[in-house]
Write a structure and sequence with these properties.
alpha+beta; four-stranded mixed β-sheet; 2 domains; about 260 residues; Alpha-Beta Plaits
Length: about 260
């Protein structure tokens, strides 16, 4: 790239991820414009953050408020979900029964099992785990699935070809193809909101504070405090994806 060439947003992200930190800033500053200098500053500000998510299963009541809020905020198509809630019930024979009618969009209006047969029951919200070693970004043939500088797994809709490889690769079932646009889609932690200092739609809608989103690098953040004080687990830890969605009170039946 010559001194006078413009760097696109996509190229900026790729350059940031591919270039050692010590040389990246110097490379952009060498282009000479104040615009590139501002981008360097913005990149450094983002790299100081690492977004993570906590779900407290001991507080979730399966009301579906989070699902409805996400649907509205992100224009999620019918029959698909960026987040959903699963109901787990364990019967007298210790068999595990799981359902999620309509993703819990309208809560759970019918019993899964007769009450007298249930010895234990709980709800588990699901969403993209924004893994540090994400399988979805590794299989994307055009680089449309990528990590933002502040640790959020995103999809570049301008480059996504809708091949579905990432949908198949995700071990958590968090991705789908939006057939209205022909591109992959999933939870973005409401990136358009958190970048402006707002909270995710699902966190704002939860009446029980069962969801928490925040900066894992900030020792004073609520997510860090919860992870210090409570027992937590992650989904499918044996896969080595290093997910950043942490579950408080997660039962072994879910893991």
């Amino acid at each position: 790239m010559t001194k006078g060439e413009k760097i696109s947003r996509r190229g900026f992200v790729r350059l940031a991820l591919a270039t050692p930190a010590g040389t990246f800033a110097g490379t952009l500053i060498a282009f000479g414009s104040s615009e590139e200098t501002d981008r360097v500053k913005a990149m450094k500000d983002l790299e100081r953050l690492e977004w993570g998510f906590v779900v407290d299963t001991t507080r979730c009541i399966g009301c579906g408020s989070c699902v409805r809020a996400c649907k509205i905020e992100n224009d999620v198509p019918d029959t698909f979900f960026r987040t959903w809630v699963e109901r787990y019930e364990i019967d007298e024979d210790e068999r595990v029964h799981v359902d999620s009618p309509g993703g819990a969009l309208e809560s759970f209006k019918r019993n899964l099992l007769p009450a007298e047969r249930v010895i234990k029951g709980f709800f588990v919200p699901k969403l993209c785990n924004h893994c540090r070693s994400s399988a979805c970004t590794q299989v994307c043939p055009v680089g449309a699935s990528f990590h933002s500088p502040d640790g959020v797994v995103l999809v570049d809709k301008k480059h996504c070809v809708g091949c579905g490889y990432c949908v198949q690769a995700c071990p958590y079932g968090c991705r789908y193809i939006d057939h209205r646009k022909g591109t992959a889609d999933k939870c973005t932690l409401c990136y358009h909101r958190i970048r402006k200092g707002k909270m995710t739609a699902c966190v704002e809608a939860c009446p029980r504070d069962a969801r928490i989103c925040g900066d894992l690098r900030d020792p004073k953040s609520k997510v860090r405090r919860v992870l210090r004080e409570r027992r937590y687990d992650v989904l499918k830890p044996d896969l080595g994806t290093d997910p950043k969605c942490y579950y408080v009170g997660l039962d072994l039946e879910v893991i």
